[in-house]
Design a protein that fits this description.
Distance between the termini: 59 Å
Bound molecules: guanosine-5'-triphosphate, magnesium ion
Order of helices and strands: HEHEHEHEHHHHHEHEEHHEHEEHEHEE
CATH class of the largest domain: Alpha Beta
CATH superfamily of the largest domain: P-loop containing nucleotide triphosphate hydrolases
Radius of gyration: 26 Å
Number of strands: 13
Oligomer: single chain
Strand order of the largest sheet: 6-7-5-8-9-10
CATH architecture of the largest domain: 3-Layer(aba) Sandwich
Number of domains: 4
CATH topology of the largest domain: Rossmann fold
Structural class: alpha/beta
Length: about 425
């Protein structure tokens, strides 16, 4: 399998970074690097990365004619197959630039869609990407990059069916869109039923959210020892992945790993992935995983928080939010701050080295048991059944014997407290 995949020649790519408004150099550089990492994730060889100041955005080509010519020279010299533009392009701009450069032109939305498509695993994820891309393509009907077509085999909205789609007229695409929406609806209903099942069982859910590359999947794997794809590519995860995690007796949670946020996420995608983020919207606790070693960490935090706010996850309605300051192996000066009400707490962790992970588990257990009640029970020493019950349902802190009695200090879920009268 590997042999076949590595034998596929990678497309040669360059990336363009047009800036249309004055931007501080460090922000500009951070965005340029992030976009170039996105390009890397798409299995192209990035041959050059060019920053451009665009004073007047031309309707025909976005770039000025001198700039477009300069890029044409680079394309010829480096034998470039694909030019990635970190900006939205109209269908006309895209077509004109492709003609001018004799290369495939992909804008920011197109690139993110491609990456999402190659990462989609579950039925829902695949449907969401197909839908978003058809909506995007309906005005374009553009040809795809051929290497993805070969790699993907089965599904590939800009790949496999790419050639064919040129011939499909818009009406057919619209029909496909309708069909997909119907299917997606069914899948979403099924998921909602599954969620309702979880709610009935009252298993609290915790969602990991965060900027792309913050280390969510690595942490998810460490906590659950699952193998979720984690690597240095952006958007390594598309679909929420759910695992059950037992933190202690009677203390099980469901934890979900989600797709990473990026700045300037094309709005078409925010809509398309709303369902993906439903797990987050219904979580009882949100863990915001941050790459604390990234110089852009503060800006990334803002992007995550404003995206969450866009989804309605702010204010009183929002579940408590805790920051995990990840990669603290690279920034040892970072320390934890734990608040009584959990909300607003920050824990320094390293998903790689494991530092702070035990503290995180303890923290989650304390959060989970926040309603548990401390009790002291006096049980006849001969009543083995009740003593066993205590061990089974609560966390026993101490046991003392006094004459023919056993005194057990323990904490119990609220439904078992003496006021509830449920202790057998
Ligand atoms: N040094 C260090 N690297 C880490 C740590 N946690 C994660 N990484 C690295 O950061 C990179 C991204 O990790 P992922 O877990 O894939 O990040 P993610 O947040 O799931 O990314 P997306 O799914 O793209 O949103 C990988 O190369 C990890 O090995 C950490 O605690 N320390
Ligand atoms: Mg991930």
């Amino acid at each position: 399998m590997d042999l076949i995949e590595t034998s596929i020649p990678k497309d040669v790519a360059i990336s363009l970074h047009p800036t249309t408004t004055p931007t501080p150099p460090h922000q500009r550089l951070a965005r340029q690097q992030e976009f170039d990492r996105l390009v890397d994730s798409s299995h192209c060889d990035l041959a050059d990365s060019v920053a451009l100041n665009v004073r007047t955005m031309l309707p025909a080509t976005l770039l000025g004619s001198g700039q477009a010519k300069r890029i044409a020279d680079i394309v010829t010299e480096l034998e470039v197959d694909v030019v990635f533009v970190d900006h939205a392009l109209t269908p006309i701009q895209q077509r004109n630039l492709e003609k001018l450069w004799q290369a495939k032109v992909v804008d920011r939305t197109g690139l993110i869609l491609e990456i999402f498509a190659s990462r989609a695993r579950t039925r829902e994820g695949v449907l969401q990407v197909q839908l978003a891309s058809l909506n995007y393509q309906v005005s374009r009907l553009v040809r795809s990059w051929t290497h993805l077509e070969r790699q993907r085999g089965g599904f590939g909205f800009m790949g496999g069916p790419g050639e064919r789609q040129i011939e499909l007229d818009r009406r057919m695409i619209r029909q496909q869109i309708k069909q997909l929406e119907k299917e997606l609806d069914q899948v979403c209903t099924r998921r909602a039923t599954q969620r309702a099942g979880r709610n009935r069982k009252a298993i609290p859910t915790i969602a990991l959210v965060g900027y792309t590359n913050a280390g969510k999947s690595t942490l998810f794997n460490r906590l659950t020892t699952a193998t979720v794809h984690a690597d240095d590519q952006l958007f390594a995860t598309l679909d929420p992945t759910l695992r059950q995690l037992t933190l202690g007796k009677n203390s099980t949670i469901v934890i979900s790993d989600t797709v990473g946020f990026v700045q300037a996420l094309p709005h078409e995608l925010v809509d398309a992935f709303r369902a993906t983020l439903e797990e987050v919207m219904e979580a009882d606790l949100i863990l915001h995983v941050r790459d604390i070693a990234d110089p852009e960490s503060a800006a990334q935090k803002q992007v995550v928080e404003s995206t969450l706010a866009q989804l309605g996850l702010d204010g009183d309605q929002a579940p408590p939010m805790v920051e995990l300051l990840n990669k603290c192996d690279l920034a040892p000066q970072i320390i934890s701050k734990i608040c009584d009400e959990f909300n607003g707490s920050r824990l320094a962790i390293s998903a790689i080295s494991g530092s702070g992970i035990k503290e995180l588990r303890d923290f989650l257990l304390r959060w989970l048991r926040r309603d548990w009640v401390n009790q002291t029970l006096h049980i006849p020493a001969a009543d083995g059944r009740r003593i066993a019950w205590c061990h089974q349902h609560g966390e026993v802190h101490s046991i003392e014997s006094e004459e023919d009695q056993i005194i057990i200090r323990l904490s119990l879920p609220p439904e078992f407290t003496t006021s509830g009268g449920h202790i057998p």
